[in-house]
Fold PpiC domain-containing protein.
Amino acid sequence: MLSNFRAFAQSPIALIIIVLLVLSFAIAMPGAGGIFTGSGDAVVVVGPERISQREMATAFNREVARLQEQNPDVTREMAREEGIAYQVLQQQITMATMAARARDLGLAISDVAIVSEVADVPAFQNPITERFDRDTMAAALQRSGVTEDQFARDIEGDLLRSQLMATLAGFSDVPDQIAATRYLVAEEQRRMTGLVIDASTADEIEDPTDETLQTFIDETLGANGEPVFTRPEYRAITLVRFQLDDFIRDVAVDEATLREVYDYEIATNQIGTPAYRSFTQLTVSDQAGADDAASRLAAGEAPSAVAAELGLDTPLVQTDVQQFEIPDEGLGETVFAMSAGEARAVEGRFGWSAVIITGAEEATQPAFEEERPRLQADAARAQATDDMYDAISAFETVRATGASLEVAAEESGTPLEIFQPLAVNSIDEDLQFDGERYQALAPEILPAAFDHIEGFATNLESYNETDFYTLRVDEIIQSRPFELEEIREQAESRWRSIQVDTQLQARAEDALAQLEAGSDMEIVSLMVGGRTETSTLKRGQTAGGFDRNAVALAFTTDPGAYEMIQVGEGQYLVLTVNEIIPADIAAAPAADLAGIETSLTTELGNDIVSATREYLIRDYGITDESIDNRLYSLAIGETDPSTRQ
């Protein structure tokens, strides 16, 4: 069966599907999941599969490390802000759905298959003997921060997904004829000739009279049925804003305080990654029995064999647990003081046990100096937040007495802003647009002003996630049609463009009629004005007056027929196809056809993965509510989930 998996993995469709599934999880060896067992701390549960906090943290850390190889300046915070953590979570969910469905279908991987696959990993081969070497494997896994148990589960997961995807791949063969057809379509050429009629050949347009312009202003309507030349409604406002950035300043924070925060974040796993242990526990009645069992385990005997020979209960297996997850505190302290492969007799709160450690991963903690800039910035932000709320309190206390915005601002020392009439998009009465003003007001504040009545201040409202404002509408200037003198320049420019376009369209229609009647294009160009152009183009190419739309039209036009198209403002094209030049499939380079097949396979692979993922997500009922946000935040080192991207 494993040979079948390997044969499948060598096919193009399999390669693309697997790459799509495990993209961003690449390390120096196979295995990108580790999502097939849980320790009770599941970020997401997908059917029988669990994505634990540790597994999510490991996947995110690997992705950050991969990004840092490309750009050393990338930080975990930057990755979170750019949504990388959420992408990693979605990829983990995708892999979990595939594994869950494989298990639901009864697919399974034997230990022999896993061992064989591990032995073929190049990173595990001794560089001298070029054969699998356990010590080399252990060193490689340690460098990657992966335990042997976890890696074995990763291999099992990869093979399970390969089984499932092999079934899907059976429906995804790309027939050679499809690739050949795409080549013929892509390489087909058409020689086309066009008569270009543009504004350079237009007759002079006489100046419009005032009556003509006024009629144009009155009768030109927009898509909403209202006159285009209408002044918007304007509102003058008085504004008081409390913006967090205005309160942020350098704050001298005691070193001891920063260290306390740092220690707290370490203790609560908000930064770094916690220690994990995998172990097997045999419960015995006394110390002598525990010592005997521990000695046997240390000698390499299987826990199940030791339990059977000594008449003990079935061994208890714990995988990737944190210390707080072990109910017996004494046992937990001892287990986390032990190293991988070590066996001991342990007296816990519930009696004696023999324990052997099957996997150990120590905690990783960023140094205090590495975290100092962030801690300092967080302290400054916290102080700024306190200062801002103090300022808000002082301002609102005065307002509560019935004071106006002006009085409340003056008595509380709060800045007051007065804005002359603005439209809802921040354009002023002179029709001037200020981008900075737009960014400051238009997204949230001005729309609120246009929903409020005149003369009364609003309650304090939040905006921008961190800031607050209150405003009063001081004046409302109703919308009205522009007077001619207010809009003469813009109206005349628009009127002239329409006149020119109308003239050119009439010429193009006249030229089309003459050409369809059998006239020569060169003669027609002299009569109506314009120039002729000829090009030989493939689909998607452009040249001269032949833009993409014109070329697309040419590929739907029969040779000898004529079509008219507007190719830009004040520019028309009347075209004909002189010759269809088919591609020669016999002369097609093998590399080109192979590239097309790869492209088709990629497209089909995308469709298969997308459709399969969407179906499984729905089938397992996975939604945003399925995510344990607390554990997800801890896994990615997020201290403030409200900032999540």
In short: Residues 275-361 form a domain with the Chitinase A; domain 3 fold (CATH 3.10.50).
